[in-house]
Amino acid sequence: MSFLDRAIKDGYAYITGAEEKQRITYISSDNHSENFSDPEEKVRAEVWAELIYQYDYPASRIKIEVAIPDRLPVDRADIVVFEDDACKRPFAVIECKKDGITDAEFSQAIEQGVGNATWIKLRATYVMIVAGETRRVLDVSDKYGVLEREENIIADLPKAYGKPQAFRFYKGGEYTDEKGNICIAPDIHSVERETLIAAIKKCHNTLWGGGRLSPPTAFGELCKLIFVKISDEKKARKKGIPYEFQIKTHEPSSKLAERIRALYDEQKIKDPEVFTESIKVDDRVLRTVVSHLEAINLHETDLDVKGVAFEQFMDGFFKGDFGQYFTPRPIIEFCVKMMKPEQDWNVLDPACGSGGFLLHSLDFMRKQAGEYYNLEVQPVEHYNFWHDFASKHLFGIEINDEIARVAKMNMIVHDDGHTNVISFDALDSIEKMHDHNKGFAKNRFDLVLTNPPFGSTIYKTEKPYLSTYTLGKVKDAKGKEKVRPRQSSEILFIERIWQFLKPGTGQAAIVLPDGILTNSSSQYVRDFILEKFQLLAVVSLPQCAFAHFGAGVKASVIFVRKRSAGEALDENEPIFMAAPELIGYDATGRQTESQLDEIVERFEKFKKDPSPFFA
Fold it and tell me: Based on the number of CB atoms within 10 Å of its own CB, is 368 exposed (0-12), middle (13-18) or buried (19 or more)?
């Protein structure tokens, strides 16, 4: 039960009206009534109830929409907590804003709140500004100048007119004060999808700062800070010990930044593959990011919530220039369902981008764990089943270092699987990859799931490794083989996938531009595919499949099995064909119906008996 639900149950307020036209009446604030359909009012109502139950202020001393003295026309404070029953002596002023406002708007709210709370107005001691999960609390008593905004920051509003506590969040929801008394304090908490999306967007906008950092660099810095946050959440600490990733009372931003950087460096030593660079964020900017995230328990937030939240955020982030690094969720899910990876399979994406295929393979394995083990009765077996897959059998390669960092972070947020994600040119020597990480080797992988970059050209003069590829060569009129001056990257990826797969059993799902499957000039590529692979299925995707992400190329997914040594092409090999028109979204990104699950079912039937499909 939320604090607001409790307040309504206890008779301090009530809500009336239809859902779109609801009004809330604060009985304890002289029956003041407001439009509850307004997002800002919802924030205020929750904070108002929190003041009663979390902060132990009498409901009768908390007033809504209090007129500010000497303001004409009349200006009003959102919430005022008074020290006395007559409500003449203000103690704290609270300004409430809807979630998702910009940093500039939040700064304006701070100035509004401080202006209302200072001695020439309401003469309050504290001011708190709330915008969703983001908060700032200031001591505005006369021991600080009216322009002070740094030294007077405190962790949280004091409870029951007491002194400000050192931190706001404590493990287990309680702490012991200086006198040895057990005091109630909030623990960090899991959140809903929209709240997490808003928090991530706020963090990215804070770091991006309207151009201070490029969007991918800003996202890279966000990845580092989320990494620190999750590491701090997982850190072993006893009940009553505060978390470190949070704002401390009277701690300047330089000291907070020092503490966060020390946490990061500590984790960097433990896991040097994840991040090699230091945090490159201004101290005050870093503090703002901490304020956006400190209340959220990312580790405990539902995996599906985290998955959708991060993908929705990256949906926007990876459009246009970064569209090549992001494959839409419905296409990824479809490929994974078609291939059905098993727990002991080595699974690879050699062009993993933001990590979509790896994440959905992990999610598929986590669901499979639930089929074998009851999570409540056999939590250890359930965890070991999917975590063993994540740590030992899941591999990714991404040429762009910043995007590789995004993929690693994505895996960490989803409870791991980042260990074998490397930043490397997947078309370069496999032996070099093996030296970097022993898990990468020829003929090693049971499954490859990938959407290789389209349209990138590999030149012989720039990449000498082109000469090592069969598809990097051409025969002249006399039948003499010579290295091509250039080749498309997606064509070379086909051969590289073949090299990675286990002979005879290794399978792959590969997104390819339709030109490879239809253009006469690409016949030699199709010949290579049919010679080296058994073609299991071809699913032609509609034009809209990648249009939303800035790539208008018509594409298909081919599903193949690597032939064993000496295995010849059988002219009668059945091939499953499908061309869905509906894939769950359209060219604008809006949701539609999907025929993809139906195709998966048809493919399963086809594998058992293909004859009806050719009747």
Answer: middle
Q: pLDDT grade, residue 208 (50/70/90)?
A: confident
Provide the angle, in degrees to the nearest 10, between the axes of the packed helices 193-208 and 283-293: 180
Block residue for tokens 């800003």: 218
Q: What is the pLDDT of residue 186?
A: 92
Using a pLDDT cut of 90, give the percent of the chain over it: 56
Q: How far is CA 600 from the centre of its chain?
A: 28
Burial 308-342 (b: 16+ CB within 10 A, else e): bbbbbbbbebbeeebbbbbbbbbbbbbbbbbbebe
Domain end among 293, 328, 352 = 293
Reported as a single tens digit per residue, the pLDDT across 557-609 is 999 999 999 898 888 899 999 999 988 888 877 888 999 999 999 999 999 98
The answer to whether residues 121 and 115 touch, using CB atoms and an 8 Å cutoff, is yes
Q: Which domain holds residue 419?
A: 303-614
Domain finish residue from 267, 293, 319: 293
Average pLDDT estimate for 195-201: 88
49 and 133 belong to one structural domain: yes
Cα dihedral: 599, 601, 603, 604 (round 10): 170
Peptide linkage before 350 cis (omega within 30 of 0): no
d(CA 42, CA 65) in angstroms, rounded, equals 14
pTM greater than 0.70 (yes/no): yes
Is the distance from CB of 386 to CB of 369 less than 8 angstroms?
Answer: yes
Q: Does residue 582 sit in the same domain as residue 605?
A: yes
**What is the per-residue DSSP string for 463-512?**
-GGGGG-GGGEEE-TTS-EEE-SEEEHHHHHHHHHHHHBPTTT-EEEEEE
Amino acid type, 467:
S
